Amino acid sequence: MKAYKNCFRQFILYYDGQKPSELTRKQIDAFLLYLVRDKKVTESYQNVFECAIKFFYSMVLEQEEKVRSLVSKKKEQKLPQVLVESEVIRLVDACENPKHKCILMLIYSAGLRLGELTNLRLSDLQPEKNRVFVRDAKGKKDRCTILSPKVWEKLKNYIEDYRPVDWLFEGQQGGKYSDRSVQQVFQDAKIRSGINPLATCHTLRHSFATHILEKWVDILYIQELLGHASPETTAIYAHITKKGWDKLKSPIDDLDFK
Predict the structure, then answer these.
(1) 131 classed as catalytic
(2) Are residues 136 and 217 in the same domain?
(3) Are 121 and 219 contained in the same domain?
(4) Of the listed 90, 121, 135, 138, which one is catalytic?
(5) Which domain holds residue 161?
C-alpha cells in the first residue's frame, strides 16, 4: 500500500493541477516514458508504478479502458549468483566467532532465506529427525528443511556457550537477531575470504539449491526444501549447474543399428 501510494503521488504531482480522472492514456504513457528515459528507473520499480496506476484507474475511478494492457512484459529472468564449494568453505572459515559461523553454515546447509533464519526459535530445531521447521515463510507457508548433523554439532556448542532463551540467534540486548546484523556478518566474512564480491546472504540459498541438485537429488524434493510454489522456480538451478555433463550420453548410444 505504501509503495502504491508513493508511486501514485509522484504520478499526480507530474500532472499537477489536472484531475487524474481527466488524464488520457496518452498522458499516462508519457509519464511512464519519462520514468524510463529521464529518471532511469529500474524495470521492477517501473512495474510498481504501472500496477499502482492500473489499480487506481480500474478499481477506484472505474476507467479501466485507460489502463488496459498497461503493465509491461515480464522482465528477463537472470540466473542467480552461486558460490562454488571451495568459496563456501573459505567464507565459513573466515568467521572466528562461533555464532557467526553457525549463522552462515545454517543458511547454506538448509537453504534458508534471511528472514527465515532470524525467525528461527530453539523449538524449531528437530535434530532427532535431522530437520529444521520453518514457520510462516514466504507465502505464509510452513515447511521443513534439512538440519545437517555436522551443523547440529556446531549449534549444540553455540547454544551451550551463548544460552539463547527463545530465538535461536538473539541480539546482545535480547530479542531476535536482526536481518541487518546477519547481512553484516556475511559482508565481513565475504571481504575476509575474498570470494565473489557480488555474493549476498541469498547467494548461500542459491548455492545450496545448486549444490544439492549436483548431487542428483530430485528437483521436486529441492522444491519442497526451498518452499517454492512452482517447480518452474526451482528449475532455474538446472540452468546453472554443468556438473555431471561428462557422464551424460544420448539414448541412441544404447541402440544397435545395422
Answers:
(1) no
(2) yes
(3) yes
(4) 138
(5) 85-239
pTM above 0.70, yes or no: no
Give me the mean pLDDT over the 204-227 stretch: 84
What's the pLDDT tens digit per position in 144-160?
999 999 999 999 999 99
Look at residue 24 and tell me if it is in a domain.
Answer: yes
Catalytic residue check, 258: no
pLDDT per residue over 75-118, tens digit each? Answer: 555 667 899 999 999 999 999 999 999 999 999 999 999 999 99
Which position among 113, 143, 176, 190 bears the catalytic label? Answer: 113
Mean pLDDT of the chain: 86
Tell me how many domains the chain contains.
2
Q: By the 8 A CB rule, do 67 and 54 touch?
A: yes
The pLDDT score that the predictor gives to residue 236 is: 73
Q: Which of 66, 93, 120 is the last residue of a domain?
A: 66
118-148 per-residue burial string, b: 16 or more CB within 10 A, e: under 16: bbbeeebbeeeeebbbbeebeeeeebbbebb
CATH of the domain at 193: 1.10.443.10
Residue 228 a catalytic site member: yes
Please, what is the end-to-end C-alpha distance for the chain in angstroms?
69
113 catalytic? Reply is yes
**Closest alpha carbon to 225 in 105, 152, 143, 148:** 143
